[in-house]
Design brief:
Elements (H helix, E strand, L loop, with lengths): L2 H28 L6 H19 L2 H9 L5 H19 L2 H24 L2 H23 L4 H9 L5 H23 L13 H14 L7 E5 L5 E4 L2 E6 L6 H20 L15 H15 L3 H15 L7 H8 L13 H20 L7 H13 L25 H20 L3 H5 L5 H10 L9 H9 L6 H14 L3
Helix pairs in contact: 1-2, 1-3, 2-5, 5-6, 6-7, 8-14, 8-20, 9-10, 10-11, 11-16, 12-13, 14-15, 14-16, 16-20
Keywords: Carboxypeptidase, Hydrolase, Metal-binding, Metalloprotease, Protease
Catalytic activity: Release of a C-terminal amino acid with broad specificity, except for -Pro
Protein name: Metal-dependent carboxypeptidase
Length: 489
């Protein structure tokens, strides 16, 4: 057995254990008894301890010194294993274990505080999470920028300064479009009550419409929709509201975008570093293009209007044009996951600035709620009404995902580039979507992006698929054209 063969055999075992650890997280969000939170924290800490030891093992370094690549895929495997090895050896094992335990417990405390609208109940454990993540960031940065070190976990090769510059370029046009749209009459929404079982049935049907293989996945409910897993076990969750079926529908389509990426990766890469999405920004490009450029397109919305009438009967919307306006309605709101395409990135910019300040120490955890509320009022023009609509709405900080939020907007930017290329490559796409056939779009994405998994660096895979360097220009042009048409600007 060559050094490369031994390295890959070892890595596949490590990846398999990481999948088991991920399943613990899925269970915690969907089925775990509430009283099991403390024990689950210990279980996840134990798994993290094992994984950290394997990733940082001296034997891995010895194999990396002599492993020879036979082709570009082998070279990419070595690159990614070395990256994980170097990272693991920067972070002390005790710290990695402590972070896993505290964030598991913090997740439950966040959920309880959110339900009780009690920020004070959550802040002590968040303070602990922030302190631990600062310590981790310092270990990773080795004298560099803490936030950049965290961002590199989710979007390798990207810095906070680059994200800030991108946001500075996007903000004026988004603010201007938002102001123009909100001056126009509001689109009418659905009316009535929508049976939960019927929503979940439609959710599963739509998942399959977008190519999700239920033989290798499942759809469940959670407070915060998410996708987890890779290869032959990729699971998604959604949520329901008796008065807002769009929440369930578009949460499902969004998470299917993530899941389809994982299911579409070349099976030869299974349980290796290349057998998963290359970055969270690229991952988010798939969920956003599925949800928005495909799922909220005029053509697909027309088909979905008929499908919803078949499932629910009269939904209070007169025709397909009114339905298209409804699923693209722009209106004031608090919740990031429910935000329209025009305002979504403004929600991300708020979080990006706050979490950078938390990591730098310019903002302290006890001051977070006031800082959030002040920034929200300044950006959106109205006050946060309760904590679950403010700083308690997202799970990310409770589980230590600092550096994650900006990848949502990167995903939107990447999706804009991909959509432009997709439209050029599949000229009859709208005719297909009007029949509820997404295969032209999803097939193009699978062939040009998804199958590569982690083979290429994030910006490289977007450039290869779209034929251009990633830029915010296609996204901004798409948004201005689409919403100027809907709102007759």
């Amino acid at each position: 057995m060559t050094a490369f063969d031994a390295l890959m055999a070892y890595q596949r075992e490590t990846s398999a254990l990481a999948q088991v650890a991920g399943r613990l997280g899925w269970d915690q969000e969907t089925m775990m008894p509430r009283g099991a939170a403390g024990q689950r924290g210990l279980e996840m800490a134990a798994m993290e301890s094992i994984l950290h030891a394997r990733r940082s093992a001296p034997q891995v370094g010895e194999w990396l010194e002599t492993a020879a690549a036979n082709d570009p895929a082998d070279a990419a495997q070595i690159r990614e294993i070395r990256r994980a090895f170097e990272r693991a050896n920067k972070v002390p094992a005790d710290l990695a274990k402590r972070i896993a335990q505290v964030t598991s417990e913090a997740q439950g405390k966040w959920a309880a505080a959110r339900a009780a609208e009690d920020v004070a109940a959550f802040l002590p454990v968040l303070d602990e999470v922030v302190a631990l993540k600062r310590e981790e960031g310092a270990a990773l940065a080795k004298g560099g920028d803490l936030y950049d070190a965290m961002l590199d976990d989710y979007e390798p090769g990207t810095t906070g300064a680059q994200i800030a510059a991108m946001f500075d370029a996007m903000r004026p046009r988004l603010v201007a479009l938002r102001a123009a749209v909100l001056e126009r009459p509001k689109a009418e929404g659905v009316s009535g009550r929508f049976d939960e079982a019927a929503q979940m049935m439609l959710s599963r049907d739509l998942a399959q419409t977008f190519g999700y293989d239920l033989n290798r996945g499942r759809v469940d409910k959670a407070v915060h929709p998410f996708s987890s897993g890779s290869g032959s076990d990729v699971r998604i969750t959604t949520r329901t509201s008796p008065t807002d079926p769009f929440n369930c529908i578009y949460s499902t389509i969004h998470e299917v975008g993530h899941a389809a990426y994982e299911q579409g990766i070349d099976p030869a890469y299974a349980l290796t570093p290349l057998g998963q999405g290359v970055s969270m920004g690229v991952h988010e490009s798939q969920s956003r293009i599925y949800e928005n450029q495909i799922g909220r397109s005029r053509a697909f919305a027309g088909w979905l209007f008929g499908r919803m009438n078949a499932v629910f009967g009269d939904i209070g919307i007169a025709d397909a044009d009114a339905f298209y306006a409804a699923v693209n309605s722009v209106e004031n709101g608090y919740i990031r996951t429910e935000a329209d395409e025009v305002q979504y990135n403004l929600h991300i910019m708020l979080r990006f600035d706050l979490e950078r300040s938390l990591m730098s120490g310019d903002l302290q955890v006890p001051d977070l709620e006031a800082a959030w509320n002040d920034r929200f009022a300044a950006d959106f023009g109205y006050a946060v009404d309760r904590p679950s609509n403010g700083c308690l709405q997202d799970v990310h900080w409770s589980v230590g995902l600092f550096g994650y939020f900006p990848t949502y907007s990167l995903g939107n930017v990447y999706a804009g580039c991909l959509n432009q290329a997709l439209r050029a490559a599949v000229p009859d796409l709208d005719a297909q979507l009007a029949e509820g056939d997404t295969s032209g779009a999803t097939g193009w994405l699978r062939e040009n992006l998804q199958r590569h998994g982690g083979l290429y660096a994030p910006r490289e895979v977007i450039k290869r698929a779209s034929g251009m360097e990633p830029s915010e220009a296609p996204l901004l042009g798409y948004l201005e054209t689409k919403f100027s048409d809907i709102y007759s600007l």
